[in-house]
Structure to design on (305 residues):
């Protein structure tokens, strides 16, 4: 193969990879335009769990009613998408007029405090639910909220949830300050790159791995076809070949018996019968399977199956 053909192949492959990466990056970016809300747990304290100290007693009351199991929960809630979430109007992203945050049904919201009073959000509570109405929730806007909730029965932890089906094509991410701190300690250099470069490199690796895997499968299929033709030749020429090799040994042209795959190429010119079109190399199978494993396993992790 001359240099010109190699150059054309390289240009063609590079063009295909660039086109596929561009299309996939565009689709990935389009998906990231979907509204995404992050609910981050900051603290979770059960106020009625007192330390075991002799003579220490305490009780909590809410509007003259005794509260036997009281929790104080702090959350940071943020629009981490790259566009605003529209809450009113013809083009709103909400299915209803509000989004609903809720705790399990065995909890009752007594009070809540929102630290960002400047944001134009309206809140209403009903038992274990908190409804939030707004005109527009801009990208990266967040608010801190503290809940005081009563545990009615002891069967579930007080975890705040958001019904993502109330937001058209919405996503909700749940995390905690502890998990975030752990992740920040282990951030790779890749995470500090601009997002569009991260997307490009991510898709480049995926596409390159897929091409290598498909190429490996094509080579393996080609090997099977050649193997089938070789076995057909061997079944028809086994005795003839062995007799011919024996004569070569008797004439001191070979020192020992050789299989067709190890026979020196210069001797095949003396073979008086039909020669095998091509003798497949069994090492190809090992190489192809190794390549599929090396690139296939990371690919499964990358695409998050």
């Amino acid at each position: 193969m001359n240099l010109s053909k190699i150059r054309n192949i390289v240009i063609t492959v590079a063009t295909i990879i660039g086109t596929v990466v561009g299309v996939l990056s565009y689709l990935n970016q389009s998906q990231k335009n979907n509204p995404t809300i992050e609910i981050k747990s900051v603290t979770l304290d059960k106020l009625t769990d007192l330390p075991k100290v002799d003579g220490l007693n305490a009780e909590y009351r809410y509007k003259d009613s005794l509260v036997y199991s009281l929790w104080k929960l702090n959350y940071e809630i943020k629009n981490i998408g790259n566009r605003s979430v529209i809450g009113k109007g013809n083009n709103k992203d909400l299915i209803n007029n509000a989004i609903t945050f809720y705790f399990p049904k065995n909890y009752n919201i007594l009070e809540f405090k929102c630290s960002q009073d400047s944001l134009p959000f309206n809140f209403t509570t009903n038992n274990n639910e908190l409804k939030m109405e707004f005109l527009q929730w801009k990208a990266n806007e967040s608010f801190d909220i503290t809940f005081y909730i009563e545990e009615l029965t002891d069967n579930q932890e007080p975890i705040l949830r958001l019904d993502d089906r109330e937001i058209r094509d919405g996503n909700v991410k749940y995390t905690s300050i502890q998990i975030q701190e752990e992740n920040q300690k282990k951030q790779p250099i890749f995470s500090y790159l601009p997002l569009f470069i991260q997307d490009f490199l991510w898709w480049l690796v995926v596409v390159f791995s897929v091409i290598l895997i498909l190429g490996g499968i094509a080579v393996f299929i080609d090997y099977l076809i050649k193997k089938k033709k070789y076995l057909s030749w061997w079944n028809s020429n086994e005795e003839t070949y062995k007799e011919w090799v024996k004569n070569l040994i008797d004439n001191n042209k070979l020192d020992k018996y050789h299989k067709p795959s190890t026979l020196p190429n210069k001797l095949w010119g003396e073979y008086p019968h039909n020669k095998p079109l091509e003798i497949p190399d069994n090492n190809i199978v090992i190489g192809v399977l190794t390549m599929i494993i090396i690139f296939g396993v990371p690919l499964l992790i990358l695409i998050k199956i």
